[in-house]
Amino acid sequence: MSLPTLAITSGEPAGIGPDLCAALPRREWPARLVVLGDRAMIAARIHAVEPVLDIIDYTPGGKPRAGALEVLHVPLAAKAAPGRLDVANARYVLDVLDRAIVGCSSGEFAGMVTAPVHKGIICDAGMPFSGHTEYLAEATGTPRVVMMLVGGGMRVALATTHLPLKDVSAAITRPLLVDTLRILHADLRTRFGLASPRILVAGLNPHAGEGGHMGMEEIEVITPVLEQLRAEGMQLIGPLPADTLFVPHSLEQGDAVLAMFHDQGLPVLKHASFGGGVNVTLGLPIIRTSVDHGTALDLAGSGRADPGSLFAAVELAIAMAKGQTKP
């Protein structure tokens, strides 16, 4: 059986992405890993991180070589220095992503794993950019995607993502929850190999609204959606109080959690898996996983960046490509 080929985007060249990629040959992977980025920049970063590492150029149909880093060259616009952002290279960051998207869409790559980018520098260059997730959705013509974090034995998806807390209630509508749960359910089946996934759904308010005394969203929005989708055959448990949902006994009852907002679910998961968590974009026609941290400009080029989250993201992408995933 041939090994899946994964595209590993090296991310912001001033950040730790190239450092993390340089650590990949420390392991033997049941896949062919192709790092996308500027060859000379990656070679210079490797010298600081893994001095004895070899680089080989990527060729379609080629084979990986133990102890070597395979690189698909995407040229920088300007020389990159660790820790120093440069708007001149903002387009380069998107060019790397675009090449990975093309490769995944054509079947050249079985999936992509993304190192961190710096949203601010891309926007400063005059290119509106709210994140990998939104960029990938637009590039693949996907009307709605769902962000899910995997780690610490948990899968936690989000109904809303980067919103001020004051805007969350208005954003949680019946259509949004229907779409989110359908995407989550479908990808748990097709990408994670769960024939009949069980989804724990958090309420929005403390104590899941306590019968309407602490809010009506559970009664007016969340419960009707769960009833509708249960009638379609989904196993949905909730709405549950978030403070008791994330205890071991409750988590054992489900395969994934749907949290209503970013800081309802992710602090728990990151406490359990920080440095080894993985961000997964659900709903795309391609496999995409990512690290759960930022560019860490202060660590770039130092040799001290921890590749744990990238390794976990690669492991999960390989498993998803093979249809054999566990939390």
Q: What brief labels describe this structure?
A:
single chain, 327 residues, alpha/beta, 12-stranded mixed β-sheet, 12 strands, 37% helix, 18% strand
Describe the protein.
The protein is of the alpha/beta class. 37% of the residues lie in helices and 18% in strands. It contains 12 helices and 12 strands. It has a 12-stranded mixed β-sheet with strand order 3-4-2-1-5-12-11-6-7-10-8-9, sandwiched between helices. Strand 6 and strand 7 form a beta hairpin. The two termini are 25 Å apart.
Question: What topology does this entry show?
Answer:
Elements: E1 5-9, H1 17-22, E2 32-37, H2 39-49, E3 54-57, E4 68-73, H3 90-106, E5 111-114, H4 119-124, H5 132-139, E6 146-151, E7 154-158, H6 165-171, H7 174-190, E8 198-202, H8 217-230, E9 235-240, H9 242-245, H10 248-251, E10 256-259, H11 262-273, E11 278-282, E12 288-291, H12 308-322
Parallel strand pairs: 1-2, 1-5, 2-4, 3-4, 5-12, 7-10, 8-9, 8-10
Antiparallel strand pairs: 6-7, 6-11, 11-12
Short overview:
With 327 residues, this protein is of the alpha/beta class.
